[in-house]
Design brief:
The protein is built from 21 helices and 27 strands. It is α+β, with helices and mostly antiparallel strands. The strands form eight sheets. It has a ten-stranded mixed β-sheet with strand order 7-26-23-22-9-17-18-21-19-20, sandwiched between helices. A five-stranded antiparallel β-sheet has the order 14-13-12-11-15. It has a two-stranded antiparallel ribbon with strand order 1-4. The longest helix has 32 residues.
Amino acid sequence: MAMAATDSAAYYQDVTSQQRWRMNITLLRPSSLSLFYFPSSTTKKLTCRRCTAASDGVFSVTPPSKADFDYLGQSTKGDLNLINLGIGETERRLDGRGPIEDVARMEAQEAEHLLNHLGIPQDPFSSRYSPRGIFCTRTLNLRSITAIGYDMDYTLMHYNVAAWEGRAYDYCMDNLKTMGFPVDGLSFDPELVIRGLVIDKEKGNLVKADRFGYVKRAMHGTTMLSTQTLSEMYGRELVDLRKESRWEFLNTLFSVSEAVAYMQLVDRLDEGAIAADLGPLDYKGLYKAVGKALFRAHVEGQLKSEIMSKPELFVEPDPELPLALLDQKEAGKKLLLITNSDYHYTEKMMQHSFNRFLPNDMSWRDLFDIVIVSARKPEFFQMAHPMYEVVTGEGLMRPCFKADSGGVYSGGSAQMVEKSLGIQGDEILYVGDHIYTDVSQSKVHLRWRTALICRELEEEYSALVHSRGHRTTLIELINQKELVGDLFNQLRLALQRRSKGRPAQTVAATHMDDKELNESIQKLLIVMQRLDNKIGPMMESDGELFNKRWGFLSRAGLWDKSHLMRQIEKYADIYTSRVSNFLHYTPFMYFRAQEQTLAHDSYSFHHPNRGDADSEDEE
């Protein structure tokens, strides 16, 4: 539900007014700031003194020239430090309260009391375990980031997929009909595809691959393929995204309309419904025709003109998003907007999405130090292009060679941005929704830090929570099958050795009665078959709460990660469902990557270490 501008301003004033209080702060790098206070001895009511953030000589911020690296390899630039003046008494109070581990727990509790008193939510601890969490694959100290760049479409503004992609599909189908393709009776079905799938242009298939490239599910046209067919077709092949002539990765929600149209027309091609005068079309030629029709829809401008005339029908408002960026700007971050959209579209859509939620008559332009439209990503990150400054509201431009603060520009390159700001590489965080155009290319070519926006994470997270019971039962059945299978295999081996005239594993097994051995094997075999009959359908239905055809976005089967998840882990330092999630983490957050489990980790937990074994022997 959208809030009125006055409500937003009041909310902003309520939040930011609390930032003018001074709190005693101790920095335990690389964790976040730990806040503590000392209650008055005469009253239980909290008392705080007003001050400015660092101008009164209490704190200092680590400048780039004096930055070091912490024990996780992150720069300490931007860290808040206590100036030695007058902190001796504070240190003595801390020293007298016991070991630092105990002190940390006590101070955290007191800081929580203070935040509760101020009415500030206890995030990000609760946010981490929610659909709105920010998830870290590579440790990132947000305090050391000087500039944050943002993509616009599906990043700073989220479109209603059914509305936006539905209209893109309609325009695409209109163009295909004009070209002579039989599209009557077809309609947009957003449930047909999900982000992260791969189009096989040679075979007319849509496939879901695991992190290694093995195909786990596939659809020909709009019909899902059986496991048997899947094995016959892809048993000796891996999805290789480097072979662009064959494989097309659905990187973004913008790919949905194209994929739906293509898979539906594959059916028409198989039926022989496509006229011969369109030429001898194969699946690859059909893909080119669909792509051409969709490209025309974008180039001719009808789609964007319709969206600009009624943005409220296509854009889902997020009142928290402008405030998250305002926090970052006020924390000293330089904010950049780098979008492939043109100037007029960007101006119109950003006004609609931002201005009504900003306080004090601020405009979206006030948030950004540099705005770059028509950026031509991914080439923007790969090579140099001429840059033009937008000098009038009508979009009149003139050539330029440097971007100045507050300016709006067209084209250019990432290297120009770095030169204009006097920073480079890991001092810049870029946030976008396209795993290739936004995230991988800025990482590979420039070593920028990266964040991926994937709105579907919210739905997937909720589906995973609601599927927990199903998956627990399924895993228990699989473990039971594994145990019975191990016992079955030992008896089978004993039978095999005896049949070859060799002794079995033990003397008792060698002399066991043949009838008893065969009966035991038969019973275990029947049990395993019945377990399989129960496990199979449960495996097929796993993930259907997210998508009935394809299962979970991030998983390929019960145990493994999807190809999309592998791309995210490889190129995105952090990922989340929407930019406004930063509001709950503060601009000073230290994102720490979680421990990565290995195949042998679970087994090592069951093995007692030598110290434990020795102590048991002594007892």
